[in-house]
Specification:
258 residues; alpha+beta; twelve-stranded antiparallel sheet
Length: 258
């Protein structure tokens, strides 16, 4: 399993043990674990004939998304909505409300196999919170989390697009995730169709605001079967709407160069 330095750091913060003050600020770390990946259900006939059988099809390449987001304890214990991003396409809000969002990072690896894969997207907190960045030149980033008292894991969507590749995680009420990935690098996850993946979030309570605490609670949630295509279909529709934006970025750069 390949993990970026930022994502690994987030996991280490949740796992490290240290003596802390009782008055220290507490946080929750929500870590994503991917469990499967596939190809489909859509396929563009312009890119050749689709594989035999019905979608979803097995993915021949290696695709893995790692990541986490971190929220302040006082926010998680109340009803909250956190939204951030640099473009205003529902459900995202370019103005946003990021109170309680402490940190986040997501990385997607893609390639022929696990050992020759490379980072396709590497997004950090500032990518979502800097809403003055021009999307056509620096990528599209959107975040919408909705929390309910008594439920440790929020519902919502996390979107990251660096103008070459884009990923989306849709979080269900039980913490399970249906994701989608697409890239201009080609391969099965190129413009022939969108690749999907599933997984789940785990909530870990950290007694110390700096993350150097002891895990107090860990709530794992069930993993959905890839057959849960309804949520993926919504994600695919959103990606299709944003495709012109990524291509437009390239055309604008070419126009500027001329």
């Amino acid at each position: 399993m390949r993990v970026s330095a930022a994502v690994l750091a987030g996991g280490l913060l949740a796992a490290c043990g240290a003596t802390v003050s009782n008055s220290a600020k507490a946080d929750w770390i929500f870590s994503f674990t991917q469990t499967s990946s596939w190809f489909g259900p859509s396929y563009n006939p312009e890119y050749g004939s689709p594989p035999p059988g019905s979608p979803p099809w097995p993915l021949p390449e290696f695709l893995q998304t790692d990541g986490f987001f971190r929220l302040a304890d006082n926010v998680v214990r109340s009803r909250y909505t956190i939204s951030a991003g640099n473009f205003a396409v529902p459900p995202y809000d370019a103005v946003g409300t990021t109170k309680g969002l402490v940190d986040m990072a997501f990385t997607t690896f893609y390639g022929p196999d696990q050992f020759s894969s490379a980072i396709a997207i590497d997004a950090q907190l500032s990518d979502w919170t800097n809403n003055t960045r021009p999307p056509d030149l620096e990528g599209y980033y959107g975040l919408k989390l909705v929390g309910t008292p008594g439920k440790p894991i929020p519902t919502g969507e996390i979107y990251f697009n660096n103008t070459e590749s884009d990923g989306r995680l849709t979080i269900a009420a039980d913490g399970s995730v249906i994701g989608a990935f697409n890239t201009d690098r080609g391969g099965t996850c190129g413009w022939g169709g969108v690749c999907g993946f599933s997984g789940y979030f785990t909530a870990t309570h950290v007694p110390n605001g700096r993350g150097l605490g002891i895990m107090a609670l860990q709530a794992a949630v069930p993993v959905p079967a890839p057959a849960s295509m309804a949520l993926l279909g919504l994600g695919l529709a959103g990606m299709i709407l944003l495709r012109p934006g990524r291509r437009k970025a390239g055309s604008q750069k070419e126009h500027s160069a001329s």
